[in-house]
Amino acid sequence: MVRITLVAPAVNAALRQVRFDDAPPDAAGVRRARAAAAALPRHDMAFTAPSERCRGTAAALGLDAAVAPELGDLDVGRWRGRSLDEVGQRAPEEVAAWLSDPAAAPHGGESLLALVERIGVWLEARKEGSASPSGPAREGRLLAVVEPAVVRAALVHALGLPAPAFWRLDVAPLTATELSGRAGRWNLRCGHPLAEGVS
To answer: In terms of DSSP bridges, do strands 140-145 and 45-48 run parallel, antiparallel, or are they unpaired?
Structure first.
């Protein structure tokens, strides 16, 4: 059996503003991540998504984490650098299509369905024990610092949820979500704070 703990990164201004941007965790986020480090579950291997936010969080948590490009955030194409409010004001029809159709990618990037498929491939490779560019997979305990959208996509895949359920899953900063997989199925331990008082 493989156990995969997905850790959402520490907060920064982009997360607070719902901005499609990448930046390191802010000073408060780094402090909270350092305080949460002792609460990390035991693991045999650690990964991090390539974003500055995830790599910075992994470093603050004291992890020696391999960068896994396949765990990257949803590619929002030309919306990168803008907030959801800004995009909604300039292109409300595009945002409406994005939020209602999992196959839509009006930003020119990746659709929600494509994200779920990409993350599902990564999960199944871990469960089946196959190798990947991120290093050998094997039975054991894996930990990955990933963006909230990746946690959501992993849950949609693992639990066989309809894709629109993605928008109904909330992932708070510095929370851990555990998936355990074997015999053709995944089980979920819902997200919990890594340290008391973290929200």
So the answer is: parallel
